[in-house]
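Thread amino acids onto this structure.
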C-alpha cells in the first residue's frame, strides 16, 4: 500500500516527488490563452458566452443579488453555521497577530520610513465542483479582511442548482464584498483585466483546476497571485512512541485529496511501518474516498526508515513538505531542526485536519518543495510596503558628493546633475 525505502534509497523518493507535478499540456495552455484574450477583448459578453458553453447556465446579472446570497446562506443548518463562525473567529485571531505597523525615524535633518498599505481590491476564486470548500473561503478571505483590503470579490462558476450554501455562509462570515457568477480561466481573466461590470483586482487568490492554475500563471505580472499550487502532501516524522492508527489516519487525510497527493512517513522505528500499513488497510476499507486513497498511496505513499531523528529532520527539509507532523515524544525539541515546511503540527493530538479547518493558522501552504523559499498565505500576502524619505537642504548637501560620485561611476550624468544643480557644482 505504501513503499518502504531504506535510508540509502531516500534519493529515489526525492526524485519521485520532484517529478510528481503534472506538466501542463500545450493544448491547455493554448486554450487558456485564447480565453484570456477573448475576455480581455469582449468583457462581459465573453463571460456570459463561456458560462453557457462550460457551465450550461445562461447568466443575465453577473453578480449574485443579496436576496440570492441570503437565501443560500439560510439553508445552512445552525450547527454548521456555529462551526464556521468559530473557525472564522480562530482564523481571524491568529491573523490579527500578523499585522505590522508603519514606522519612521528622524535624525540630523533626515526623515525616513516605511508604510504598510493594504491592497485595494482582491479576487478570490472558489471552485464549483467537488473542491468547493467553505474552509478555503475563510482561509483566503479573512487574512485579506484583517489586512484592510477594501473589497474582496469572490468568483465561482454558476450552477443551475444555485449556490453552495456552506460556501456562501463562509463568504458572509469572512467579509466577502461581492460574488461574481463566473468560473474557470474566464473568471481569472475578468479579475485580472476588468470588464464593463468587473473592476480589475490587485491580486487573485484561491484554488482551482489546471485551467485556473494556468490562467493565474499567465496573468501574473498584470496582477499578483498567491501561488501555483501543486498536489497536496503530508510528511510525518515518527518515533517508537507513535500510535500507528493515528499515523495511518493522518496519512490518508491527505491521500484522499487527489491521486497525486503524497503521504510520507519517516521513522526511526523498525516496527512502525508494518503496523501503519496494517492500519492503512483496515481503515481505508471504511472510508468513502477509498479508491482515491488507494491510488495516491500506491503512487506516492512512502516510508523511509532512518537511524536518528536528526536524519529524519534533514530528509524532511530536503522534501520541504506542505504539512509536517512531528509525532514524537518531544516534538518541541525537533521543531528547531525542521526548517522547510509550510505548517508544522506538534504531537499526536495536533493532526493536520485541525489546521485545515479550525485552529487558526492558514491552510493555504506552499507545495511541491516550495516551502524551501515561500510561506503560507497570510496578512503579509495582502499588503504592500512603500518607503518614504525627506532630507533637509543641509542633510542633502552633506551627502551630495557621495551621490554624484555613485551616479558618475555608473555613467548616469543626469542623475549626478540632479544633485549638482541644487548646489552649483
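Threaded sequence (425 positions):
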Amino acid at each position: 500500500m505504501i513503499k518502504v525505502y531504506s535510508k540509502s534509497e531516500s534519493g529515489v523518493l526525492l526524485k519521485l516527488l520532484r517529478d510528481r507535478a503534472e506538466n501542463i499540456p500545450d493544448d491547455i495552455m493554448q486554450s487558456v490563452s485564447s480565453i484570456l484574450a477573448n475576455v480581455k477583448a469582449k468583457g462581459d459578453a465573453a463571460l456570459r458566452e463561456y458560462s453557457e458553453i462550460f457551465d450550461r447556465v445562461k447568466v443575465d446579472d453577473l453578480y449574485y443579488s443579496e436576496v440570492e446570497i441570503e437565501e443560500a446562506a439560510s439553508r445552512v443548518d445552525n450547527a454548521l453555521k456555529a462551526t464556521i463562525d468559530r473557525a472564522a473567529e480562530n482564523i481571524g485571531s491568529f491573523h490579527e497577530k500578523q499585522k505590522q505597523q508603519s514606522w519612521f525615524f528622524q535624525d540630523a535633518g533626515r526623515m525616513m520610513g516605511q508604510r504598510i498599505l493594504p491592497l485595494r481590491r482582491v479576487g478570490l476564486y472558489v471552485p464549483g465542483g467537488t473542491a468547493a470548500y467553505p474552509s478555503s473561503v475563510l482561509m483566503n478571505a479573512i487574512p485579506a479582511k484583517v489586512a484592510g483590503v477594501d473589497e474582496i470579490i469572490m468568483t465561482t462558476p454558476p450552477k443551475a442548482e444555485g449556490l453552495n450554501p456552506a460556501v456562501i455562509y463562509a463568504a458572509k462570515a469572512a467579509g466577502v464584498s461581492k460574488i461574481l457568477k463566473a468560473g474557470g480561466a474566464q473568471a481569472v481573466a475578468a479579475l485580472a483585466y476588468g470588464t464593463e461590470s468587473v473592476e480589475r483586482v490587485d491580486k487573485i487568490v484561491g484554488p482551482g483546476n489546471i485551467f485556473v492554475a494556468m490562467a493565474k500563471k499567465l496573468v501574473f505580472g498584470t496582477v499578483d497571485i498567491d501561488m501555483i499550487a501543486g498536489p497536496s502532501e503530508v510528511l510525518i516524522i515518527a518515533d517508537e512512541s507513535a500510535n500507528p492508527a493515528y499515523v495511518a489516519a493522518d496519512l490518508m487525510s491527505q491521500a484522499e485529496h487527489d491521486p497525486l497527493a503524497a503521504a510520507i512517513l519517516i521513522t526511526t522505528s523498525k516496527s512502525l511501518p508494518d503496523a501503519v500499513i496494517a492500519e492503512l488497510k483496515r481503515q481505508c476499507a471504511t472510508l468513502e474516498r477509498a479508491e482515491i486513497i488507494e491510488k495516491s498511496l500506491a503512487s506516492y505513499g512512502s516510508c523511509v526508515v532512518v537511524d536518528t531523528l536528526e536524519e529524519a529532520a534533514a530528509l524532511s527539509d530536503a522534501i520541504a513538505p506542505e504539512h509536517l507532523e512531528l509525532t514524537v515524544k518531544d516534538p518541541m525539541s525537533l521543531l528547531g531542526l525542521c526548517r522547510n515546511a509550510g505548517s508544522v503540527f506538534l504531537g499526536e493530538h495536533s493532526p493536520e485536519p485541525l489546521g485545515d479547518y479550525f485552529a487558526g493558522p492558514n491552510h493555504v501552504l506552499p507545495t511541491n518543495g516550495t516551502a524551501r523559499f515561500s510561506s503560507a498565505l497570510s496578512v503579509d500576502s495582502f499588503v504592500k510596503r512603500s518607503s518614504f524619505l525627506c532630507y533637509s537642504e543641509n542633510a542633502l548637501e552633506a551627502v551630495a558628493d557621495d551621490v554624484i560620485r555613485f551616479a558618475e561611476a555608473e555613467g548616469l550624468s543626469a542623475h549626478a546633475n540632479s544633485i549638482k544643480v541644487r548646489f552649483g557644482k
